[in-house]
Amino acid sequence: MTTMTAQQRREVDKADHELFLADCPTHHVLSMIGDKWTALVVSQLASGPRRHSELRSALPSASQKMLTHTLRSAEQDGLLTRTVTASVPARVDYELTPLGVSLLPVLATIKAWAENHIADVLTSRATHSALARTP
Q: What is the pTM (predicted TM-score) of this model?
């Protein structure tokens, strides 16, 4: 009988955990909408199609590179469509797909929860931080 070292057990446990996450729908969705910009982009498109320049204006703290990356990822995930109209300069519009629209109530619920509970979260963080500094 062979025995595993502690390092080998940790590696097996890590691999098992990664396989679990790879098959977990909740993990995939939270990774998708949990980044800094996807939920904001989807929320901006809730009122209808927007041009790339309108999204840049609405999200000024997002760099051009990050906004482009977020839009491409959301398109790949099926949350929005990208339409290019041949003109000079080219016009690019983004619009939510039915899948993206179905995400809006979920985001609204998360937003409401955050607004209702942020004071509790911040108080808990401050308390925990103070306790951690106490010798």
A: 0.75
